[in-house]
Amino acid sequence: MVFCLRVMQVESEYLPLYKNHGIRLTTWSPLAFGVLTGKYNSGVPPDSIFALENYKNLSSQSLVDDVLKKVRKLQPIADELDVPMFQLAIAWCAANCHTLPG
């Protein structure tokens, strides 16, 4: 879920850190805990990470709906490239010279 919320920071806000200090970012959960695989399109599955007690605060319905709304805006890009959403997310990480997939 964090993927959707932090892309602008990685792309622009952190740019001075990359340029001035040679810092690179290790992406944690580049598939956003499964959000970019379509796993949560119908809600939170009982066997998912967001069903665990420690993560339930991240899986409120309003938050899930908000994130899915943002993720769905990426679908036309994936469709145009003829790739699944998860492949688009991994490709973004691999193509961004400031990230190291974790």
Topology:
Elements: H1 2-13, H2 15-21, E1 25-27, H3 61-72, H4 75-81, H5 85-95, E2 99-101
Parallel strand pairs: 1-2
Structural commentary:
- By secondary structure, this protein is mostly helical.
- Helix content is about 50%, strand content about 5%.
- It contains five helices and two strands.
- It has a two-stranded parallel sheet.
- It is globular.
- The N terminus is likely disordered.
Number of discrete helical segments: 5
Overall, the morphology is: globular
Total number of strands: 2
Oligomer, anyone? single chain
Brief sketch in words of this structure:
This protein has 102 residues and is mainly alpha-helical. It has five helices and two strands, in the order ααβαααβ.
Task: State the main characteristics.
mainly alpha, 6% strand, disordered N terminus, two-stranded parallel ribbon
